[in-house]
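quick one before i forget lol
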Amino acid sequence: MTVLVIDGQGGNLGKQLVQQILLQFPDTDLIAVGTNSIATSNMLKGGAKKAATGENAVVVCAAKADVIVGPLGIVLADALLGEVTQRMAAAVGTSDAVRILLPMSKCDTFVAGVSDTSSAALIDDAMKKLHSVLSAY
């Protein structure tokens, strides 16, 4: 089972996701892809063994992943202050992978029905969803 974590900006959310996935699912084939080198570096500091940076890495890895985890902005072109290209958003959105997207209220995108929740609570919920997905395989 391949889990792809995608993040941008400073990569802090991605780093926390990587840490929790490796802690809770140590046998998972985890790949971290940053939309920039700082995000990738932080996910490597979180423990990722496989990592890459940029648009092509997102496109290639999204096609191979079983599960994609990251902020909601990874499916929105020009999100994360323009770091998410149309090609990246399309690759994530059309991937056959299960997507677990954290509704961060940034980039002027809000999801109705979702309350303002801390990053820690969102990550906990994402891990519950990932457990459900991985236990089904």
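fyi The chain has a mean pLDDT of 93.
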